[in-house]
Amino acid sequence: MTSAFRAPGRVNLIGDHTDYNDGFVLPFAIDLECVVRSAPNDDGLVRLRSRELEGEVELPADGTADPLTVEPAWGRYAAGLLRSLGERGRAPVGIDGTVESTVPPGSGLSSSAAFEVSLALALCSAGGLELLPGELARACQEADHAMGVPAGIMDQLTSVAGRRGHALLIDCRTLDVRPIPLPPDLGVIVIHSGMPRALAQSEYAERRRACEAVAARLDLAALRDATPEQVADEPRARHVVSENQRVLAAADALQAGDLEMLARLLRESHASLRDDFEVSTPELDALVGELEAAGALGARLTGAGFGGCVLAVARTGDAEQIANEAAARYRAATGREPVVFLPHAADGAGPLDNDP
Q: Which string of DSSP letters, residue by residue, matches 2-24?
């Protein structure tokens, strides 16, 4: 019997580079998703074919493949996932599966997390393993770590726990998730800058090491526990501490329907990511500027930076016009080809109707 499982991508309203510092984030799952359709087999191999990416993957179902040696490269996530699920007791049952995704890779919309979570559900179903949402997200996060990307847990947990019409205030230390209703007059714009990013080749790991070094010097478990005074002269840590404060304030602004306050916090977040954390690029800065010039209330880079997407907020009725005008101006100014998304908050991962 063929089973089908879906998992959405995500966009992060605010709270970047806080998740791996045990901090707070405010993302929502989006209406772009990855779907894995699969059937169990008897030969102990996991075979996957992607409709969007090149090549096919064949892996031992017991998780013994070294993720870093797998080709094509997208199969490394599957190898890491097989290892982490095997350590949690998944039976080494093989599957034959196809992967189909509307989340563009390298966009900062968590295409990898959507793939990991949808595949994890398929593998758990075939291998007789049941995991609680937080543990499922942890297993998927470990697949990233096996790839050499020391990512936090925001992307995977958002894909698992998303709720239609809501953002998620996530405490990345406790994994507590509090749904926050999105105001009906809030329009969210996401524009891909035309600059794909690859975290394994970026300075992402260096930023994490820098944060951990400051926490260790302050004798703290994580920068989540630092005060503004403690990090006043540490730009990387200063961003994390101030960003945590902005996330909590943004959740309050959403609940109050205060879009002007939300927009101000987004602008402050971008400045901090650009100046203190230094993960912006001239193109991302230009796109933020064009969105605000076109009438967005506020804008910022979203995701890890180094390329990918910019997010803006506007009144619902204005969002599409603002997005198209900003994209046209950005294209003319940079020669890059932007891609516009007007995402809506979607439900988290789960099964589709199964086919006989």
A: BEEEEEEEEEEEE--S-GGGT-E
Give residue 201's pLDDT.
Answer: 53
Same domain, 168 and 75: yes
Choosing from 66, 155, 258, 355, which is the catalytic residue?
155
**CATH at residue 336:** 3.30.70.890
pLDDT of amino acid 356: 40
Cα–Cα separations (whole angstroms), residue 75 to 47, 99, 116, 308: 10, 11, 10, 22
Pair (41, 154) in one structural domain: yes
Q: Is 185 noted as a catalytic residue in this protein? A: no
The answer to whether residue 1 scores a pLDDT higher than 90 is no
Q: Nearest-5° angle of CA 108, CA 176, CA 251?
A: 65
Of 161, 179, 197, the domain-final residue: 179
Half-sphere exposure of 146 (CA within 13 A, CB side): 28
Span 153-195, pLDDT tens digits: 999 999 999 999 999 999 999 999 999 999 999 999 999 999 8
Regarding whether 195 and 131 lie in a shared domain, the answer is: no
Assess whether 10 and 118 both reside in one domain: yes
* Same structural domain, 153 and 44: yes
For residues 299-311, average pLDDT = 92
